[in-house]
Specification:
Length: about 230
């Protein structure tokens, strides 16, 4: 059911949107919110690490990992390794990013896990971890039998896309929540910071949309190797 268009131009759009999303998050965090810190008396600097690490990790590196089969000009085995490593970095940054939100809450006496965003966030990071472990065991080491691998691939792809869509959706909830907090403590509703945050959320969302478009379009033609599946 792949779309009859080549994935290559779509993957360029993904890269461009990824760089834009990262620049926008950095401008927001550094110029408007005062930058980053691991230890500080101003605890909001610890919080600022949260959106930055989540967007860089789960969203951008996670998205680049997903499209690596479509965007890279290498052999399948090499692309598999890049896919696995980028997802591992994304997962690690996601875990540290969530830790910074907890750290900020604990050091400011705010309750943990009270919001829809935080509940979905715990679901996303748990599913992402499970997906990575299953992917590793079935497709990399010790590797399942050929029958198990070919039966697992459609599940791996569909569940991988599902957890990724949930991550992108949850990031937009996070932007909305943070901006709502800021607006209730004085940030103007139609001011430049509010526009910047909403545009950052839109670019993040578009990045996710183009990741999905890339996955369901035509990848480079390659020789059949093990672990192949015809694109959904
Ligand atoms: C996939 C991306 C994301 C995931 C998985 C995620 C996950 C989480 C989790 C688990 C918490 C709870 C921390 C606690 O209870 O102590 C949290 C808090 C928070 N996050 Fe995110 N987050 C993501 C992206 C973002 C983004 C992009 C923003 C934008 C600013 C954001 C804003 C917030 C805010 C304001 C809080 C504190 C309030 C609350 O607990 O809901 N998050 N996040
Ligand atoms: C949380 C981590 C992971 C997520 C979200 C994920 C997601 C995905 C997605 C969406 C695809 C479809 C790509 C496409 O058709 O263009 C895919 C393909 C694939 N993934 Fe993963 N993956 C993860 C981890 C892993 C790991 C650790 C391995 C181990 C090697 C792996 C092996 C594969 C293989 C073999 C394919 C099939 C590629 C093809 O035949 O075109 N994945 N993955």
């Amino acid at each position: 059911m792949a779309l009859g268009v080549s994935a290559t131009p779509l993957t360029f759009v993904v890269h461009a949107l990824g760089v834009s999303a990262l620049v926008l998050v950095l401008v927001w965090s550094i110029y408007f919110r005062g930058g980053f810190a691991w230890e500080a008396t101003d605890k909001s600097l610890i919080f600022n690490l949260h959106p930055f690490l989540m967007v860089l990790g789960l969203i951008i590196l996670g998205g680049e990992a997903i499209i690596s089969y479509k965007s890279l000009p290498f052999r399948k085995e090499v692309k598999k390794l890049v896919h696995l490593i980028l997802h591992a970095i994304a997962l690690a940054l996601g875990i540290v990013g969530i830790y910074t939100a907890f750290k900020n809450h604990n050091e400011t006496g705010v309750a943990n896990l009270y919001s829809l965003h935080s509940w979905i966030g715990i679901g996303v990071i748990s599913l992402y971890g499970i997906q990575w472990i299953f992917g590793f065991l079935v497709f990399f080491y010790p590797k399942g039998s050929p029958a198990l691998r070919s039966e697992s691939i459609p599940w791996h792809v569909v569940l991988g896309l599902l957890v990724y869509v949930l991550a992108v959706g949850n990031a937009t909830l996070g932007y909305l929540e943070k901006l709502t907090f800021l607006e209730s403590s004085g940030v103007e509703k139609f001011g430049s910071e509010a526009f910047l945050v909403n545009f950052t959320a839109l670019v993040t969302l578009l990045f996710g949309v183009f990741v999905i478009f890339s996955v369901i379009s035509q990848g480079p033609v390659e020789e059949e190797e093990d672990d192949s599946y015809s694109s959904i």
